[in-house]
Amino acid sequence: xxxxxxTMIDNMPEKTGKSLQEWKKILQTKNFTKHLEAVKFLKxxxxxxxxxxxxxxxxxxxxxxxxxxxxxxxxxxxxxLLPLYKKLIATVVNFGSEVIITPKKGSVSLIxxxxxxxxxxxxxxxxxxxxxxxxxxxxxxxxNSGPFGTMCTHRVQLTSTEEIDGELINWxxxxxxxxx
Length: 180
Prior knowledge:
The chain is built from seven helices and six strands. By secondary structure, the chain is an alpha+beta fold. It folds into two domains: 3-64; 69-178. α2 crosses α4 and α3 crosses α4 (50-64). The longest helix is centred in the first third of the chain and has 15 residues, at 50-64. It starts with a helix and ends with a helix.
């Protein structure tokens, strides 16, 4: 957890009148389907500022879903891609102890000091691997980042574990090195 977020959590009782755990209990009694509905509730019903309300709601959701749950959700109906995902993860964990694997709702970020890659199940038969390789020329295989936008500079479309070859591992290693 970064220092700014920890400071916000530490200051929450003084600034909002309740601790993070107390706010989470209040939100658990409600059944909000959207993030902004919960934020609006905290702001209007309890006078919480937008920044604190947004943080409370986001942190409440984080605990509800484990990283494993996020992976299961991402690959639901795309189970055929799990061996490919697992091989990518097994490859990057060999880079060293600095690799941080961060599952999110629709993708998995691979981080060193900065994000260096992103794994996203794009279709039922393809994973898109986004890479941060600033200045690297595009090739037929190492494509424009496409839907990743500025999060990554390049994208490699993968459909089988055999495509995790020396060339791809070199690109991943290069991206990892640049993120240090």
